[in-house]
Amino acid sequence: MIKMQYPVQISKLIDSFMKLPGIGEKTAARMAFFIFDLPEKDVTDFANNLLAVKKNLHYCTICGNITEDKVCEICLDKTRDQSKIMVVAQPKEIISFERSREYHGYYHVLHGLLSPLEGTGPEDINIVSLVKRLRNDQVKEVIIGTDATPEGEATASYLSRLIKPVGVKVTRLAHGLAVGSDIEYADDLTLMRALEGRTEL
Fold this sequence. Notes:
By secondary structure, this protein is α/β, with parallel strands linked by helices.
């Protein structure tokens, strides 16, 4: 019996979709055939949007957030509380805190978390530039806003030990965020309570 195979271009598209997080072969195949059935204009727009993200966006030179310019809008906003820096793992988590409208300080994006099992050490995430930012005497508190996961806790502990000798207060988001939960999916009320109840490390 001859095994039916996908056309080469469909196979390549499936392989591309499988590079996305959480996408297995069956889901990738379904997406590939969905793309095939879309009008050409929609596919062209989709492709152009993918290219535009890579060509037109980059990381803020100060905090590591995603921006079209050298420095992001948040870092340029002089009305924000310059005494606080919230440390998050990924840029998407900034959106969650900004949506809650409860936090008015600045941010710093690590672009990852410490994970010895995966071989991710301090040199693999955006820590050096954070330490440089703390040389500014206006920074009085660093809020660790990483997820309540083993990696998030390990990162929070490491940052606390690193920052405390500088003389800056280090706090951690508190109750409201369940152990193992992702900040990205937390609702506004949960984030507000986590911010209000943060504790010093």
